[in-house]
């Protein structure tokens, strides 16, 4: 009797999922939680920033589920990664924030359909925590970077400590853009 080889599935982790210009001089990264009201407000700010700084910033969302107060945030994070495997991360991301009070497993399946996810195993992947390790990896990285609460923003790798308003983040992004222009280009060897 021949043994069937187990299929190895490559999972796209959240640290590789960006929106915005891939060559943008400024990278905005957020550690967040899909059940958090503050993160939902910050998501609207990020949308404004992406529009205002089109071509100048790129955005990466990392998962930091506060499971002690948001019991459904972990599965919501896993659901976003499930959607990412079909290129639907950002659609799912925005749907999850818009429906942050409805993140039960059945609702997550419905949200995935709304996002355009076609995976017939989506619910099985959620139940079996297929993407759980990736979410835990984000959580560990956030802790290592000093994240204690959400939303937590980083601009070109530097932790931002102010309120995540459009005006405040714009000022920091403007400074980061000026700094990237000041860096001298590497001289070519003759």
Description:
This protein is an alpha+beta fold and 190 residues long. The chain has a single domain, classed as 3-Layer(aba) Sandwich (Glutaredoxin). The protein is 45% helix and 13% strand. A five-stranded mixed sheet has the order 1-3-2-4-5. Strand 2, helix 1 and strand 3 form a beta-alpha-beta unit. It is globular.
In short:
The chain has 190 residues and is α+β, with helices and mostly antiparallel strands. The chain has helices at 37-52, 73-84, 89-98, 105-115, 122-127, 132-144, 166-182, and strands at residues 18-20, 26-32, 57-63, 152-155, 158-160.
Under CATH, the homologous superfamily reads Glutaredoxin
How large, in whole angstroms, is the Cα Rg?
Answer: 18 Å
Q: Can you summarize the main beta sheet?
A: 5 strands, mixed
In total, how many beta strands? 5
Number of domains: 1
Number of helices: 7
Q: What is the overall silhouette? A: globular
Q: Give the strand order of the largest sheet, numbering strands 1, 2, ... along the chain.
A: 1-3-2-4-5
Poorly predicted regions are none
Classify the helix fraction into a percent range: 40-55%
Q: Report the structural category.
A: alpha+beta
């Amino acid at each position: 009797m021949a043994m069937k080889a187990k299929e190895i599935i490559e999972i796209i982790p959240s640290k590789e999922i960006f929106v915005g210009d891939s060559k943008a001089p400024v990278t905005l990264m957020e550690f967040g939680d899909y059940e958090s009201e503050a993160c939902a407000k910050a998501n609207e700010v990020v949308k404004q920033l992406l529009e205002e700084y089109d071509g100048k910033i790129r955005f990466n969302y990392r998962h930091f589920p506060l499971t002690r107060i948001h019991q459904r945030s972990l599965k919501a994070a896993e659901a976003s990664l499930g959607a990412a495997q079909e290129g639907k991360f950002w659609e799912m991301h925005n749907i999850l924030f818009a429906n942050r009070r409805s993140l039960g497993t059945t609702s997550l399946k419905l949200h995935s359909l709304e996002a355009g996810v076609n995976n017939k195993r989506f619910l099985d992947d959620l139940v079996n925590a297929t993407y759980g390790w990736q979410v835990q990896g984000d959580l560990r990285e956030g802790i290592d970077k000093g994240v204690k609460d959400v939303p937590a923003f980083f601009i070109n790798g530097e932790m931002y400590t102010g309120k995540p308003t459009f005006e405040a983040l714009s000022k920091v992004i403007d400074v980061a853009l000026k700094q990237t222009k000041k860096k001298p280009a590497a001289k070519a060897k003759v």
